[in-house]
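User: Good morning. I'm curious how protoporphyrin IX containing FE would be positioned relative to this chain. Could you predict the structure with it bound?
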Amino acid sequence: MSTPAPDESATPDTGADTVDPLDRDLLLDPYTGFGRIREQAPVARARNFDGSRIWLVTRHDDVRAVLDDPRFANDPTSVPGIDTDKRAEMLVQLGLPREYVRYLADSILDTDRPDHTRLRKLVSRTFTVRRVHELLPRVEEITAELLDTLPEHADSDGVVDLLEHFAYPLPITVICEMVGVPEEDRPLWRQWGNDLVRMESPEEMSEATVAMVEHIRALIAERRENPAGHLLDALIGVRDEDGDRLSEAELITMVLTLVIAGHETTAHLIGNGTAALLTHPDQLAQLRSDPGLAPRAVHELMRWCGPILVTRPRWATEDIALADTVIPRGESVQPILTSANRDPRRFDDPARLDITRAYDTRGEQHTGFGHGLHYCLGAALARQEGEVAFTRLFERYPGLALAVHEQDLEWMPRPGMRRLIKLPLRLG
Ligand code: HEM
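Assistant: Good morning! Here's the predicted structure, ligand included:
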């Protein structure tokens, strides 16, 4: 029996769409913009990029409630009556050959129970806290090497772009090392990773996807013959108690997802966090005098200026009451992590950066890494990289300073992400 498609006429009319997600002021100052929305209405109507309606969820408790509620799905085709994934179609329209769409559109982030449970269980058996911890000495070495070469990248005025020469190369090198990408291939992966996450040109994105998928396919074939003890080998060999394993396509998608999800995100935690500490000298002084504060400082920077502002949209599989609104079946909500992280109902004096704020080990109080089933798989790795990066950067360059005034730092007006275009510094 087919279920009728969601009925537009059943949608309650609560006024005109109020929020334009591409509004430049909102993109450049998401804290003020989303903060205003949060205080006006817990659930606000907005126009989605394709012109459809989306509901912004801005308060901490509501964001968590959505991310905990299995009636909100990640895969739009989980909604009875919807059988096309607009995102997958968009990738085809952008020129990605149809046979490659699955590698971008069917990641773990696009699945719901029970498929998600299966994938997450298999990957969690390999992407373990122990594996992340064992990588620490390499994270330290890679960091030290990058910091040593920073002066070579100074321009004639003695200015270095920290994003280009430290914040980007660190996470991509670490994830390549973790997965087991041979050293000679890493510049290629860095380029593909950049082309994929920057999404500046559809051709570049399409070519990078095809090249990367084929490269991963070849790497998997090679590793089946000659395992080398890296994450990829563990993913190839992983079985659950019933002998279930990842298919070839799932393996490729997982590696691609790890590289994409772990790359630009961590780079901008380092970029945003460095800018925040340099513009809050009292906080930086505390971190310098007590490097043991680094884990807390990273949690606080994730809360205060974390790079990912929103989760993926979640789709209502039935009419769902949320705060003072009913989200009609078939419509999507957009949890806004950044406004949850500055919700005064949850955090005292939320606009204040305070690296001594109390967090539990995982920092579950803030939502910078999401919440619930899809909570960031790489959070422990990102935190480790952040802790090493901030501690060693400020230790190695005690005179580090912004090369421009704080108000002249250029932020990229990009929806869903808080990131600088450049971070020009003087090493001192
Ligand atoms: C999921 C943020 C680093 C892998 C997520 C989600 C967020 C997030 C907000 C949830 C999205 C949603 O629910 O729609 C971040 C931030 C990072 C970071 C801010 C750095 C500061 C990493 C790293 C990796 C990674 C280093 C791996 C190498 C993943 C994966 C998921 C995910 C695989 C999907 C988990 C699932 O669907 O079960 N991340 N992430 N992330 N992240 Fe991260």
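The mean pLDDT is 92. The radius of gyration is 22 Å.
Let me know if you'd like a different ligand tried.
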